[in-house]
Write a structure and sequence with these properties.
This protein has 137 residues and is mainly alpha-helical. Helices cover 47% and strands 6% of the residues.
Amino acid sequence: MRISQKLEYACRALAQLAKNFDGQTITRLDEIAQREAVSANFLVQILNDLRKSGLINSKRGKMGGYLLAKPAKSITLYEIVNSVEPTLIDKTMSSNGESGESVSKIWRTVSSDFSNNLRQVTLEDMLPDEESGMFYI
């Protein structure tokens, strides 16, 4: 499966925000961009999509930045995909032609299964294990 760079960056940016989530701690755009090696110009567009969807909040100004709107365990991968790549879960298809209906039925089933699987994964599931960090001797 090939996911877009936009969706990958959205997940990585949200993971950064989740690491600091306490409902108050704001993370600056440049911090997220640097930690994830992502262009700040591209990242701000992604963060705007996430904000419009209600997954994150933003604060303007010199001390501004971003924070999750709710805990990581409450944000599903379905919501993230729907925020930045809604066509990935779009169920629109044609049922024209002799085989159209039967083919369309299969794709609707696959699409439904895919959407259900996305709803089972949370942002919390995407966070690295704290124990799997660097090991020094």
